Fold this protein.
Amino acid sequence: MLAVKRILCPTDFSQPSYEALKVAGEVARHFGAELWVMHVIPPIPSPGPVTEATFAPGFDLPLYQQELVGSSEKALQAVIKERVPPDLAVQSVLTPGDPAQEIIRTAQEHQIDLIIIATHGHTGWGRFIFGSVAEKVVRLASCPVLTLKAHQGET
């Protein structure tokens, strides 16, 4: 039997990820498990290495990154407060990086027993262009992964 003590649920602050968080909370309650809610701050896209010269004069990249981390932390704490039942044991994880790689790394480092993640329903070109974080997590995670498909219009 699968012993579920720690559940990881990544959120990108989208409606599908909130639906996954709801299910993760229900599963955590059922198993008496600790719920880990995670947000990964994706890298700032650029045509080459990210340097001060990459951006327009006067653009303060370190300040922008600091503000991005601060706003992400506030958003993550708000999601936990509004969407996770207060009786559940919860941990928050905020980290920069590639979302799939960071989810997998966090699951391994913290001995997560189950990952519950939403898909965004991209197919064809959309999937080719954007990739699929959920698909990469399913392929590479060392623990079971429950994926929840986004409903049409929720991506």
Observations:
- Helices lie at 15-31, 61-83, 99-109, 124-130, 133-140.
- The CA atoms of residues 56 and 118 lie 36 Å apart.
